[in-house]
């Protein structure tokens, strides 16, 4: 990027912020970067609130420390760049549970998102169909083949492994179902191994062996004080740098980009703001850090084929019910996942003050959070807040009482005390539902843009996967492509 440019980043979530920071770090004097965010706040699903005087995440909770190569994940590198390295904290306990027939059982080790590499290790929660995973003399998948996770695992290991292990783990991450989620999109390491290995258990072991992880190193982290600190630190970085080197970074809130079209000069024209009072903006390059559907609508004015490839992706809506409770015993778990076959409103729960030591309080008050809503269950989120809190509390009380009773705790049967405070957060259209073939569709869309419109890039969970590290890396990669295009 040898000459100053005007660059628009459309979307102010963590993906867009990471893209803007990367652009900011490589911009020559005079470059103008503008972040357009349609809501009134930056950060997207990184949002920290307060409950009974304690910080509580009302969106994403944590992130992976390592990337698939074993190196620091993109968000760890970002945290260091923003001066938050000393604020990273790790779970006190990493043992989670599964609700099986109403009882909490430890999540078995040695699985890859619930898919076992050793069938004996999962026997406590599921009965694998061991006689199906036979070596038939060829790889499980062809070179370009993709199918749903559920289809492959049911064929090889039976229904119980899917329903009791894989489905709740995928549900915890994607709020989707194993039978409709792409293997290549949600478990890329397993998909790669399945193109050379002849059995599913062999593919799991191969994928695990190819993912180096330092012995004893923590797997997850969060930011003490809340993930919103990442957002605030990014804004501080923009403001601090803007005073020193002549690169202007502007943040526009409540600024929806409604139209996007190429200009005859090779740049881009954006229509920003309300229909009655539109603002026309011309820039040299654009990073679309938006969910797939709104990105598809903007791309309709650029290339209808790309718009169709991108805009058809569906999303799941979820709700998060957080409660502060007086001091009371809890199972010694970080939380638990719930298979859909259990029939509960809750699909996952986190015992925050058990999982994160930095959230413990002198008065013993505990923080718990439940996730509700799988793909196709949007109607459950339309109930009133007090109804959701009451049902979540009742289900948690039953589950905890039974777990403590099984453990011989003197507190068994007491259930949970009434919450001191509660908060309900709904996230409409929050989590992408990647159907089989999703990676190929995204690759085709990006290939067309690189050829025909190299100064327009896509970034975010709708294309590359969920999780804060993936979103950060996606934003940075999109920014790198813009830099290369403007230098060329």
UniProtKB/TrEMBL annotation:
Q: What class of enzyme is it?
A: oxidoreductase
Keywords attached to this Swiss-Prot or TrEMBL record, sorted alphabetically, are:
Cytoplasm, FAD, Flavoprotein, Heme biosynthesis, Oxidoreductase
Name it: Coproporphyrinogen III oxidase
Localization in the cell: Cytoplasm
Give the transmembrane region(s). Answer: none
Q: Which GO terms describe its cellular component?
A: cytoplasm
For this protein, the record's InterPro entries field holds:
Amino_oxidase, FAD/NAD-bd_sf, Protoporphyrinogen_oxidase, Zeta_carotene_desat/Oxidored
Extract the Gene3D superfamilies matched here: FAD/NAD(P)-binding domain, protoporphyrinogen ix oxidase, domain 3, Protoporphyrinogen oxidase, mitochondrial, domain 2
Co-factor(s): FAD
Alphabetized PANTHER family for the sequence: PROTOPORPHYRINOGEN OXIDASE (PTHR42923:SF3)
- Indicate the family of this protein: Belongs to the protoporphyrinogen/coproporphyrinogen oxidase family. Coproporphyrinogen III oxidase subfamily.
Pathway(s) the chain acts in: Porphyrin-containing compound metabolism; protoheme biosynthesis
* Single GO biological process annotation from the record: heme biosynthetic process
Catalytic activity entry: coproporphyrinogen III + 3 O2 = coproporphyrin III + 3 H2O2
- Domain named Amine oxidase is located at 14-483
Q: Which GO terms describe its molecular function?
A: oxygen-dependent protoporphyrinogen oxidase activity
Q: What is its main location?
A: cytoplasm
**What does the UniProt record say this protein does?**
Involved in coproporphyrin-dependent heme b biosynthesis. Catalyzes the oxidation of coproporphyrinogen III to coproporphyrin III.
Q: What is its EC number?
A: 1.3.3.15
């Amino acid at each position: 990027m040898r000459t100053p440019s005007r660059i628009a980043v459309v979307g102010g979530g963590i993906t867009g912020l990471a893209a803007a920071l990367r652009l900011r770090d490589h911009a020559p004097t005079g470059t103008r970067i503008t972040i357009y965010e349609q809501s009134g706040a930056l950060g997207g699903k990184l949002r920290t609130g307060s409950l009974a005087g304690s910080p509580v995440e009302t969106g994403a909770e944590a992130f992976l420390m390592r990337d698939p190569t074993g190196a620091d994940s993109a968000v760890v590198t970002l945290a260091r760049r923003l001066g938050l390295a000393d604020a990273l904290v790790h779970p006190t306990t990493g043992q989670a549970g599964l609700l099986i027939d109403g009882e909490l059982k430890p999540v078995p080790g040695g699985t890859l998102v619930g898919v076992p590499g050793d069938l004996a290790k999962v026997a406590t929660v599921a009965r694998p169909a061991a006689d199906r995973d036979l070596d038939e003399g060829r790889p499980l998948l062809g070179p370009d083949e993709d199918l749903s996770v559920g289809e492959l695992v049911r064929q090889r290991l039976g229904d119980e492994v899917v329903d009791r292990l894989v489905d709740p783990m995928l549900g915890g991450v994607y709020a989707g179902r194993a039978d409709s989620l792409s293997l290549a999109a949600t478990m890329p390491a397993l998909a790669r191994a399945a193109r050379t290995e002849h059995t599913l258990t062999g593919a799991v072991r191969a994928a695990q062996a190819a993912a180096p992880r330092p012995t004893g190193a923590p797997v997850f982290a969060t930011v003490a004080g809340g993930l919103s600190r990442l957002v605030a630190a990014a804004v501080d970085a923009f403001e601090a740098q803007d005073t020193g080197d002549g690169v202007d970074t502007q943040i526009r809130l409540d600024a929806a980009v409604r139209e996007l079209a190429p200009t005859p000069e090779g740049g881009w024209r954006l229509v920003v703001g309300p229909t009655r009072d539109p603002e026309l903006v011309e820039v040299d390059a654009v990073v679309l850090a938006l969910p797939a559907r709104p990105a598809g609508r903007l791309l309709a004015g650029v290339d209808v084929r790309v718009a169709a490839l991108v805009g058809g992706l569906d999303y799941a809506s979820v709700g998060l019910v957080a409660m502060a409770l007086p001091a009371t015993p809890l199972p010694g778990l970080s939380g638990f996942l719930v298979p859909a076959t259990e029939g509960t409103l809750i699909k996952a729960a986190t015992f925050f003050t058990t999982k994160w030591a930095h959230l413990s309080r002198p008065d013993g008050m505990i923080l718990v959070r439940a996730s509700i809503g799988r793909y196709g269950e949007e109607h459950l989120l339309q109930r009133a807040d007090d109804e959701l809190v009451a049902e979540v509390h009742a289900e948690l009380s039953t589950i905890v009482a039974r777990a403590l009773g099984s453990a011989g705790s003197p507190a068994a049967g007491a259930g949970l005390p009434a919450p001191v405070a509660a908060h309900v957060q709904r996230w409409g259209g929050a989590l992408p539902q990647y159907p089989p073939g999703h990676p190929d569709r995204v690759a085709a869309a990006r290939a067309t843009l690189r050829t025909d419109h190299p100064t327009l890039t896509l970034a975010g969970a709708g294309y590359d996967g969920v999780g804060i590290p993936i979103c950060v890396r996606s934003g940075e990669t999109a920014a790198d492509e813009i830099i290369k295009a403007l230098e060329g």
